[in-house]
What we know:
about 375 residues; Quinone Oxidoreductase, Chain A, domain 1; 7-stranded mixed sheet; globular
Amino acid sequence: MPHTVDAVVVTEKNAPASVQSIIVPDPGPGEVVVDVHTCGVCQTDQHFQRGGVGDDFPYLLGHEATGRVAEVGENVTSVAVGDKVILNWRAVCGQCRACAKGQPQYCFDTHNADQKMTLTDGTELEPALGIGAFAEKTLVAAGQCTVIEDLSDEHDAAVGLLGCGVMAGIGAAINTGGVQRGESVAVIGCGGVGTAAITGAKLAGATTIIAVDLDERKLETARSLGATHTVAASETDVIEGVRELTGGHGADVVIDAVGIPATSTQAFYARDHAGRVVLVGVPDPSFTLELPMIEIFGRGGSLKSSWYGDCLPSRDFPMLVDLYRQGRLDLDAFVTERVRLDEVQQAFETMNQGEVLRSVVEIG
C-alpha cells in the first residue's frame, strides 16, 4: 500500500525548502520504491528552488542518493528487494538513435517513474531530476538504480555523490575532455564539481593539473585532491597564470566548472592550440557567450559541453566504486558535513558561502 513519509519540498519559486508529508505510491510496471539512506545537497537542487530549471512547482528536491530497494513493480528484473543502489537521472531507453549507435550515454529518451508522488492533499510533485531523494522513500524507474555490492552502509554518504556532482566532474575530465596520460589540465572553479574534475584528471594520468579559484580555501582542498599547481584568480590573470604554468602555451584541456561568460571565455583562451574546452558548470539560461569566429577557427581544438559527465551509470558507477574500495579515489574527502532532512535549507546557505564540498543528508 502507499507510504506516507517525510520529504523536503519547495512549493513555489524562492520559497524555503521545508519538510512535509508526501505520499509514495506502490511501484507500477518498471518502477521501484527505494528506502533512501543518504542524499547529497547539490546546487542543482537550489536551481530548482529558484526556478532556474523550470516552473513545475511544487518540487520534491534531492537526487544524489543511495538507498535499498524496498519494493519492485511488474517486469523489473534489473534490481531486487534488498539491493543497495546509487540513484541516477540517466535511465537509458536502449532504443533511441543514440542508443542504437552504441552511445547510450547520450540517450535522447531517458525515463523516470510514470507515477507521481504527491502531497497528502493529492497535489502532484515534480521530483528533482526525476528522483526526489530528500525523502525517507522515493519512487523511481528501475533503470535509475545502479546496484553496488559488498559495501557497508557507513560508505553510503560518499558513494552517493557519484549520483551527480562527483560523477559530473570526473566525467568532464575523463569522458568529455578525454584527458590522456602526460597532458596538462586546468580547472576553473573548485567547488564540488570542479574538485571532482581535478580528481578525474589525476585518475586519467595528467601530470600538470592547475586549480583556479578566487577562494584560497578551495585551492588548498584542490591541492589535497590532486592539483599540482594553483592560480589565485583574485590576484592573477587567469589566462596568463595558466599559460605561465604550461610553458607559455596553455593547457591541453581546460574545464569551466563555474558556467558564467567570464570563466568560459577564460577557459577558451587559457587552452593550447588544438586544446579542448569543457563546459560543465550549469549556466543561467539568460547567459550568452561571444567569441570571435576567427579565434574559434584559428585555434582549432574543440569546445564541448559535459552533461552529467557524459556518463553511463551502469558502466561508470561500479568502476568508480571499485576505485574507492582500492583507495585510489577519495570520495570521503568530498563529504564535508552530515545533516538532517530539516537542515536542507541551512545546507543551501552553507553551500553558497563556499564552506563545503558537499553536505550530505543522512536519512535512513
